[in-house]
Design brief:
alpha/beta, TIM Barrel, 3-stranded parallel β-sheet, 8 strands
Length: 178
Amino acid sequence: MDKGGHPIALSGLSKFLQTGEICWPDGKQPFVLTFDDGYLSQRNNAFPFLLDWSIPAAFCVMPGWTGDGTSHRYVSDSNVREFSEAGMEVISHTVNHANLVNLRLRNPGAWAAEIVESKTRLQDITGKDVIFFSYPFGAYDSPTRNLVAENYSGALSTRSGYDHTSSDMFVLRRVRKS
């Protein structure tokens, strides 16, 4: 931010990519902060900072995910509701952090449910429309992209790069920063 950047909501970027309408101060370089996988540490460490500085962000969460057997802890439904009530964007990241390409080949019904049901559950939790999706592991193929496009307004990939008005709204690129 001190180098001319300006944080914007993912919905602001989406509006710009679709209409060309600018929603950030003149001369500033917009960027969107996204947090994947719904780690509890994001809620405990990043979220308070974002609130203190009025910085918008998008949290990609899985409403059915309780863990992967690692030491990671994940946000609860009440944490997701807290993000939403604070004005953060809640992004669907499937129900169980599924690799959608692999799942589609093994179980097409479960594949579709991961995409559609995660949206329904998150909308029930937040009381708001969930319009963005994020592909777990960055894994998608044409059928997955198409089903996501039927249910959402855009999707985040793990492809590196910057987006512009000709970008595919269902394969939005990101620049990884740690």
